[in-house]
Amino acid sequence: MLADTVLFYIFALMVLGGGVLTITRRSAVHSAIALIVSLLGVAGLYLLQQAEFLFAVQIVLYVGGIMVLFLFVIMLVNLDIAAKQRQFNRQWLVALAAVGAAGIEIGYFILHGKSEFRIAELGARAATAPGLGNTEVLADTLFSQYLLPFELVSLLLLVAIVGSVIMAKKRI
Amino acid sequence: MYPVTTIHYLALSAALLLIGTVGVLTRRNIVIILMSIELILNAVNINLVAFSHAYQAVGGQIFAIFVITDAVAEAAVGLGILIALFRNKETVLADEVDLLKW
Amino acid sequence: MNFLDQIGLIPLFPLLGAVLMLLFGKRLDPQPASDVAMAPELSAPPSPAHGSRSRLKFVISLVCPGMVLLSFLLSSAAVWQLARTPGRIHQVIQFTWVAGLPFHMANGHTAVFQADWGFLLDPLSSVMILVVTGVGFLIHVYSIGYMAHDSGYYRFFGYLNLFVFFMLMLVLANNYALLFVGWEGVGLCSYLLIGFYFHKKSAADAGKKAFVMNRVGDAGFILGMLLMLWVLGSVRFTEINALLRGSGFHAEVAGFGVLSAMSLLMFIGATGKSAQVPLYTWLPDAMEGPTPVSALIHAATMVTAGVYMVARSAALFQLTPATSAIVAVVGAFTAILAASIALTQNDIKRVLAYSTVSQLGYMFVALGVGAYWVAVFHLFTHAFFKALLFLGSGSVIHALGGEQDMRRMGALRQRIPVTHWTMLAGSVAIAGIPGLAGFFSKDEILWQAYSALQGSAILWLVGLITAGLTAFYMFRLMYLTFYGASRVPPEKAAHIHESPAVMTVPLAILALGSVLAGWLGTPKLWNLGESFRLFEDWLAPAFGPAVAVEHPASTEWLLMGLSVAVALIGIGVARYFYAIRTDIPGRLAERYRPLYTVLYHKWYVDELYDLLFVNGVGKGFGRLCARFDLRVVDGGVNGAGWLTRFTARISMWWDTWIVDGAVRLTSFLIKSLSYPVCILQTGRVQAYAFYVVIGFLAFFGYYVTR
What we know:
The structure holds three protein chains of three kinds. Chain A is mostly helical. Chain A has helices spanning 2-24, 28-48, 52-76, 80-84, 92-112, 134-144, 147-168.
């Protein structure tokens, strides 16, 4: 148990630290790297929650796909000039205040809803059925119960592909 | 603090969400904004997985898969828009794109 | 052929002539200045070649006199038939001209005013139509020659014919209303003809003066007629005469009653028309018109209209001795006043004008004392010799090329013999030498003035003195004009020529009339038989029985002799002053300078009238009206303009501030209300994201606090 706790805190630090760094760096590349760290932390958290498939997907897709894409674009778009500009816009104070208020609200909500959601208890370890790992269970449910959303998502991906191709064209 | 309960994960998720929101609202560089959006989506994912583990239901994880897929699509298109914008306006700062100002 | 029933045609012939002149005159005589007649001395010399005048001018010369001739012939025929009509009266009513509503008379009965287009031929009107058409015709013929070189030929004849029409309407009318139509009409024609040379200011003014004075008298006429209507209920002569001579009305011997007022008002009308005091000053000024006009209108016919009207109203005047006395006194006063002025005048036509006024005074004296037939008789003879004298003077003026001042005449006897002899006949007639016309009528007047019931010795004396003055100034005229040394300027003397036959033949005919006409009314004293007293007998049915007053015959012979003597004395003195010792008039004028000046200036009556009426009433009233017009009327107009501008300014203010203000207010409101909302739309995505967060806050906050 202690290992879980320690790991949790390590990963939490990675996530939050990475997140804070992401939003505060001047250079976009630094922000990207910080985001990668954050995502890795998230992946670790998934592992702690016994969501192995998601851990893998997170690493492969998010870090290996999206962040690489981000880095490509950062390199494509010359951000030297942008790095010399003012980084935070004029509404930062007000935004901070609003978000702070939102945070207070969420905190209040969580604290008061403790008993309702049985969320103070330890997370139960799943009974590992022989031969049934996390991936199999996911696959079973995904292709039977959630087939329609699955297909729709594929459609979504198609649209995204077409859209991004068009967006990036020099001349439509 | 010793046993890590679901609440910890919720708090973490909320914190990450807020950080991401601050990033979206505050940074001028559009790339950073997009990255902040990824942060938000990850926060949601943490939340989903936490509850999925708490109730031993797999639906949460499946939803998380979908969220990731969605994030992918959105990042791709968003970056495409950024490139198109950069080509036309030579700027990646959100402040300077205010053509629809009244 | 019953001419008596056709008497309605008698006035219509000259009317036809006038209308033809109106329609076709310009075409028949298209001289360039045909509408504009210039006085002979002002106009350009006559057109270079006689052939350049219109060849159709003779049509005018034929038509207009011809119409009058037709009227004369018809009149003669009608009178001839009248002589054989019992009662010697014939009335023709053609249609009802004016019909009115019933009204209440003075005695409470109801009457209806009805004036018909009707004609009455009785002895009185028969004399008048013969005089008007006969003398009128002769004057028309004369005018053919006199106006030959005048531009405005057709206009002259048109007016002259129109005048004859109106005069005939006047004397033939069977009621006062139609008579008044003629009355006004001759006044109008008089105005038109006096002002014939309308480019001369003096002529235009004279015409205006004549018309205005006439109108003053006409006011009296109308009032009298209305009074007559109110008291007697009718305007028809026959009905009025029947009423007055019936048993309902008695002579107002003791003082002044309604009938006297009536007759006095009618007499006032007569003074205006016949130039008696005080409305006589227009007649001398009327000499501005062409000479034939003076002859016809202001000697023979129009001025006698007053006499005719009073004679026609004899039944009324016989019942009102007070008014008759006034008539006689006014007549006598006028006679001697005018004669006194005539003594000093130098214009040949002025002398004759004052002579006319004087002779009219005689006629009114006769009317005043009740000798109505005598007045008409004098009218008859006067027409002849006065027309003759005027036409003769016209001939003299024509011979001298426009000269009218007697001081520049003289010794014309040999040069223009026919004119001379005819004028001599006229002068002798007017002077009252026995044998010629004037003697018989004037002498009869003098006798009646003395001997009639209402006559008096004073009237007779005034008449006698006037007769002497008449003889004097007439022969003064003759001597100055025809005898003695010539004072004619040389350039005019060379052109002296006798008038053409078309002018001298009428002169001769009138001279004949002056000689013979008198023999129709010889005095009873002379006992020459019925045919020599035709006039009195002829007119007897018209005036009712005369009241005879007995006087010894010797008185009458005496008076007759006195009048002859006075006439001869007048002639003799004239001869002495102007033929034998021509220096005396000048010296007399010097010695009695004040008296001479007063007489020469016509007793300053014109100046008095100017002061009182023209300047006083006329100009004063004119100034008042001008002030009213300027202040009130123009003020009203200006005020309306100011009001309009003022209202416009208010309207503009309203439009600018309130109407436009409302519009601007609306747009301002919308803009200001939308401004806060516009601010929100910054175009920056992050701002919109912020709004999302705010929304989330609100939404979530609601659920949290529930």
